[in-house]
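User: I'm putting together a teaching handout on how multi-component assemblies are represented. Below are the sequence lines for each component of a complex, exactly as they appear in our records. Could you produce the 3D structure of the whole assembly as structure tokens, so the students can see both representations side by side? Please keep the chain order the same as the input.
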Amino acid sequence: MKNKLLTSTYVAWIFIFIVLPLALIVFYAFTVNDGNIVRFTMGNFIKFFTEGVYLKSLFRSIYLALVSTIICLLIGYPMAMILAGLTPKIQSFCVTLFVLPMWMNFLMRTYAWLTILENNGLINTLLVKLGFGKLELLYNQGAVVLGMVYNFLPFMVFPIYSSLTKTDHSIIEAAQDLGANKLRVFWSVTFPLSLPGIASGVSMVFMPAVTTFVISRLMGGGHTSLIGDIIEQQFLYANDWNFASAISVIVMIILLASMAIVPKGKSEEPEGGGLW
Amino acid sequence: MVKKLIKNIYSTLVYLFLYAPILIMVVYSFNGSKFRNKWGGFSLKWYKELFNNHEIIRALWNTLIIAAVSAIISTIIGIAASWLLYRMKNRKFKSVILNTSYLPMLNPDIVTGVSMMILFVFIALPRGFATLLLAHITFSVPYIVQSLLPKFNQLNKNTYEAALDLGATPWEAFYKVILPELIPGIATGMLLAFTLSIDDFVISFFTTGPGVSNLSIMIYSMTRKGINPSINALSTIMFLSVLFLLITVNTRLKDKNPKN
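Assistant: Of course. Below is the structure of the complete assembly, with chains in the same order as your input.
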């Protein structure tokens, strides 16, 4: 009896706080409010797909997020391998050192990059002192990518690291015994076994990167408006909740679809995350 | 040898990349000048100003209280939810509930944020401290469930039944037999919820109301006109506290089981 009461309470909770908000967004996306009448429309979606600005910023977001994800993977994979190969004592210390920056407010960390990169910033001051010219390091797409890589790199490293440490070492030894050289062991054993880690790392970097509006605002200086910026502006400044909801729905569908495409591999713990 | 050298150089560069901005914040918290790119000599004035700045202190309090309260409440909800999911016999219903529970974790923050904002408008709940707290609880619960459910599945099912057979009430059996086994999972989940809450900006940004801000929201509004250097001082203090906490926890864990 008690279990039933608890179940219905929990079901009510997820209905109100998870299902209802999403249902409301979908409702807003398909309606328009003229004066006092709310009526069904596809107009919000048509507006998104016909006015070039919005599609352009969606493609820009996806492009920048992809570039950042690839860079994170290229930097993060070797790093995860190095971490996984350390002796246990140093390993826990180095992993902790990797988590530590995440405890700092991410806005502050991103903002600190401005001090390094800006026109009179540390790098340019150094360049001028060395007799070179100044570089435009901020307020462009490169800076946005840097901000994304900086903020999301740990999300790539941890899942890969945890799948690497879970790899049964005897499989690697067996491959070596059977005469595989190091490269062969990596490509035929280590790498395939780390694919689930890569998959979850890729989605954990790609998703927040596509939808960010803070990084583009700070590092891109408003010149590089991403889809997240558009959603924020439409909700808070343009006050067009219907259109903003439609964009949110589109983004949500794209992301959920791309999650489905990423090969998951066979995860041993279907209900538990690999990260924590 | 060469390989080891390359590894060391590589990891040093990665760590340098991770810590460069933090180093900048720490150094500039002692900067006598108000300007980001000018060094005005060593000074503690931003630390002094920090403690006199009511706006920052209030935002700090909001952040900490919301993080603590949302971590506790979402842990309680998360324990109940995992328990229900663990006991659920109907597989279809279970998978529907489980997947719905995980939605806030799978959805991008901005979607969770705006959808909750619409919800609060819809149910006519004025946005402010309460809505901020509710939003934080909502996005924390899935992480608790995710860290607890595997622990539930590892439990020995017989112990609970045995406790019932020996005359314990279901609540007693849960409290005395199941719960102690779950403490590590609960601790992990709660810590995770606390950290996520402290670090959150996007969801807070959409669900808060006028006059109520946490640190992230305040810092974001400051970025337009330039950040008050006292924030550097605050970040430095927070960084050192976390560092101190981690070191104590680590050494304590090592004392407990010296083999690890």
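A couple of points students might notice: Residues 1-41 of chain A form one domain. The mean pLDDT of chain A is 87.
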